[in-house]
Amino acid sequence: xxxxxxxxxxxxxxxxxxxxxxxxxxxxxxxxxxxxxxxxxxxxxxxxxxxxxxxxxxxxxxxxxxxxxxxxxxxxxxxxxxxxxxxxxxxxxxxxxxxxxxxxxxxxxxxxxxxxxxxxxxxxxxxxxxxxxxxxxxxxxxxxxxxxxxxxxxxxxxxxxxxxx
Length: 165
What we know:
Blueprint: H1 3-21, E1 44-47, E2 71-81, E3 86-91, E4 95-97, E5 104-110, E6 122-127, E7 130-142, E8 161-164
Antiparallel strand pairs: 1-2, 2-7, 3-6, 3-8, 4-5, 5-7
């Protein structure tokens, strides 16, 4: 057997194996571009700190017939809206007379915790500030000097607050 030829064959086979298993070397590259398309649907919602949406605390007013001073109470709620998105708030009615008790009362929508007996049923031109939310107040007032229509009674009037955005 020719050992020189045999050795040359082995070396050639080993070289071919190295060429097959080696990572190729790249001499050039190419790049492509693509767009990422996003769609944002703005949203506004009433929420509270626990994450529940659509929840506003009850407004409790107590009154004694012929009371010489107005009865007042307030409740608050938060609104979170897409950042910088415009919105407005509106109560369904600001002046109500309860059919069960015969007491007239007013509601005032405000961004201030200071009670006001005005009858501002809406706030407009508001702007969302994202996930933080903004706090608003509903102030209720039963005017002094009312008699009512029952000897003793309670009433529950469900009111509606609407966010328009």
